[in-house]
């Protein structure tokens, strides 16, 4: 994943303040089931969320994100510490 992030940044396709861990967490949230909505609405919501997410990952005209990018090491440490 780090290689993908590095390549995307080198091509100017990914903003500098997004890391591999951020992408993993974005995908985890995006693929979670939505409670109490129809499969049709779930598909529409996911499609819109993905479009907004991908647009926001582009470096042109973006405001900085709060805090540092999330790293794989931080996710692993969090998961192994039992934080929830």
Tell me the series of helices and strands, N- to C-terminal.
HHHH
Tell me the distance between the termini.
Answer: 24 Å
Query: Count the helices. How many?
Result: 4
- Low-confidence segments, ≥5 residues, pLDDT <50? none
Which class of secondary structure composition applies to the elements?
Answer: mainly alpha
Topology:
Blueprint lengths: L1 H9 L9 H11 L8 H19 L14 H10 L3
What keywords describe this structure?
84 residues; mainly alpha; 58% helix; 0% strand
Quick gist of this model?
The protein is mostly helical and 84 residues long.
Describe this structure as you would to a colleague.
- The protein is mainly alpha-helical.
- Helix content is 58%, strand content 0%.
- The chain has four helices and no strands.
- The protein has helices at residues 2-10, 20-30, 39-57, 72-81.
- The longest helix is centred in the middle third of the chain and has 19 residues, at 39-57.
- The two termini are 24 Å apart.
- The model has no long low-confidence stretch (mean pLDDT 85).
């Amino acid at each position: 994943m780090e290689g993908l992030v590095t390549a995307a940044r080198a091509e100017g396709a990914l903003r500098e303040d997004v890391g591999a861990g951020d992408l993993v967490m974005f995908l985890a949230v995006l693929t979670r089931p939505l409670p109490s909505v129809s499969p049709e609405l779930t598909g529409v919501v996911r499609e819109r969320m993905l479009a907004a997410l991908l647009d926001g990952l582009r470096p042109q005209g973006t405001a900085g994100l709060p805090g540092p990018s999330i790293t794989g090491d931080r996710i692993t440490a969090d998961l192994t510490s039992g934080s929830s």
